[in-house]
């Protein structure tokens, strides 16, 4: 998985502005991060993204709205705030933030939170990919089992014979076993319908 893009969400008069920008410059280079507003419309869905969100001067309604934008995007969020209050807790819940830095005094605090959040975000992305692969494998296995049942019912094959038949066709046509199974199921459905014509 590629390294996530890093964005800063911040109001112009935040007391943490310079510290956060300096930290991002030091960690990612001057061109290695962007303001969220400058990239919001140009990010492709699924782009790995870590957002450093300075909550200073954000009104509650704007926090809710922005949290709704960030949460579905699977963004790794690091929140920075002066003190933890109701609005900060709302932002934590709404974004499922990976880290919170309250009253940062040193750039290293923010840098460490970003590093941890980026690592967690990357690992979560890898797990999501693995989950998709496992779900696909499970779906493929179900289709293969269904195709075996069709061959057993229509051709009188044993389970082992049905499997060998699918494997042989897979080899002969240079197609994946699941693809052959889908073809068998589709053909069976075309010729047998849903039982309405029997």
Report the span from N to C terminus: 51 Å
| Number of continuous helical runs | 7
Task: Let me know the average pLDDT.
Answer: 87
Main beta sheet: 5 strands, parallel
Shape: elongated
State the fourth-level CATH superfamily of the largest domain: Response regulator
Structural class per helix/strand content? alpha/beta
Strand and helix order: EHEHEHEHEHHH
Low-confidence stretches: none
Total individual domains: 2
| CATH topology (fold) name of the largest domain | Rossmann fold
Helix content: 55-70%
Bin the strand percentage: 5-15%
The largest beta-sheet arranges its strands as 2-1-3-4-5
| CA-based gyration radius | 26 Å
Question: How many β-strand runs?
Answer: 5
Q: Identify the CATH class of the largest domain.
A: Alpha Beta
Brief sketch in words of this structure:
The protein is built from 7 helices and 5 strands; from the N terminus they run βαβαβαβαβααα. With 198 residues, it is of the alpha/beta class.
Outline the structure in words:
The chain folds into 2 domains: 5-129, Response regulator (Rossmann fold, 3-Layer(aba) Sandwich); 132-192, Arc Repressor Mutant, subunit A. Helix 4 links the parallel strand 4 and strand 5 (99-102). The chain has 7 helices and 5 strands, in the order βαβαβαβαβααα. The protein starts with a strand and ends in a 6-residue tail after the last helix. It is elongated. The protein is α/β, with parallel strands linked by helices and 198 residues long. The protein has a 5-stranded parallel beta sheet with strand order 2-1-3-4-5, sandwiched between helices.
